[in-house]
Design goal:
5-stranded antiparallel beta sheet; 8 helices; alpha+beta; 268 residues
Length: 268
């Protein structure tokens, strides 16, 4: 820009000089013409002076010169301001993630299975003690049935069944001689009431059974002699009755009625 302004200035000055020279020549010629011609019709120089005057041109160009003067830095063209970018749409705020629902409490840990017990060695079967032959079930049912019939016919205090050991200890009878037996003795130790029915295998053994019954009656009497007088008297009134192969021993206030019931049941 600075170099261009200098060139324009030099060109303007040159043209100004040329125009001035031309103007001088015109004036001389006009003056010569005026002297030669008496008629004052020379208005042409006046008309031409403005057109050839060197003044206006320099002024115009001078006026243009400052515009291109190197000192005046051209204002930078306003750069087109970039169109405002569209405001970005507000990003949607991420929806709050739902708080994870509280996970259900873990179920109680399954109980560990109890360790299975090691299989114990199969115990050797203990040898059963040799039992003396007991009466056959059918025969025992018969003796038991007789006693039940007696108790149904005649009411007695509470009684409990005798065991084989009771028979042996209380009567001293050899069980091998018996085909069947059944007995009842007092539940409470304040009574002497007792019923026993024995069925012998052979009639010759009846006397041995009767002897054992007498010993039992004497033992009961001795037990209650100084304990309960009424029970002592009751024991003294015991009964021993034989019906076929059956032998009855009974201590009771109702001994006679029980004997009748025994005979009736034994004959069936």
């Amino acid at each position: 820009m600075k170099k261009r302004a200098i060139i324009l200035l030099l060109a303007t000055m040159i043209m100004g000089g040329v125009l001035s020279a031309c103007g001088g020549n015109n004036n001389n010629s006009s003056s010569n013409n005026t002297a030669a011609s008496p008629t004052p019709s020379a208005t042409a120089p006046a008309e031409e002076s403005p057109s050839v005057s060197p003044d206006p041109q320099p002024s115009e160009e001078a006026s243009e010169t400052p515009a291109e003067s190197p000192s005046a830095s051209p204002e930078p063209a306003a750069s087109a301001s970039p169109a405002p970018s569209k405001t970005p749409a507000p990003t949607k705020e991420p929806s709050a993630t739902k708080e994870p629902s509280a996970s259900a409490k873990p179920s109680e840990p399954a109980k560990k299975p109890a360790p299975t017990a090691k299989p114990s060695a199969t115990p050797k079967p203990t040898p059963k003690p040799t039992v003396k032959p007991s009466p056959s079930p059918s025969a025992e049912a018969a003796a038991s049935g007789i006693v039940d019939a007696m108790l149904k016919a005649v009411e007695q205090p509470a009684l409990i069944a005798m065991t084989a050991d009771d028979v042996k200890n209380m009567y001293g009878i050899d069980a091998s001689t018996l085909a069947d037996y059944s007995g009842r003795m007092p539940l409470m130790n304040v009574k002497t009431n007792e019923i026993a029915v024995f069925k012998v295998k052979k009639e010759k053994d009846i006397d041995a059974v009767k002897k054992g019954m007498v010993s039992r009656a004497e033992a009961v009497q001795k037990q209650f002699e100084s304990y309960l007088q009424d029970q002592y008297e009751n024991a003294k009134n015991y009964k021993i009755v034989v019906e076929g192969n059956y032998v009855l021993f009974v201590i009771s206030e109702s001994a006679d009625d029980l004997v009748k019931a025994f005979k009736a049941a034994a004959k069936k």
